[in-house]
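### Sample
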Amino acid sequence: MKLKKVKSPSPCMITQAIDIIGKKWVLLIMYQLLSGPKRFTELEAEMAISGRLLSERLKEMETEGIVTRHMFPEIPPRVEYELTPKGRAIEPVIDQIYSWSSDWLKQQKSE
């Protein structure tokens, strides 16, 4: 009897995705930005992340086309970060991760 091959996602594509969203803080930054544009200081305060690391992650996410940076010509300068459509597409994935962790991590604690 022959086993039927199941078509699965290319490991290369999964690896590429994990290289982007698997870095520490990236999914949490994306989660924070799902509610709308935020200033750097808002993100920094909400997540207790160092400014240096937040800046580094935002630059990487901007390079990947996940986040856009909007500068406003004000004094002092105001900068806001917002998810692009590519970045917003992660929302169902984050919802599923939340659902999985709600179901299984609670259960794990009670065992």
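The longest strand covers residues 67-72. This sample (DNA-binding HxlR family transcriptional regulator) is used throughout the tutorial notebook.
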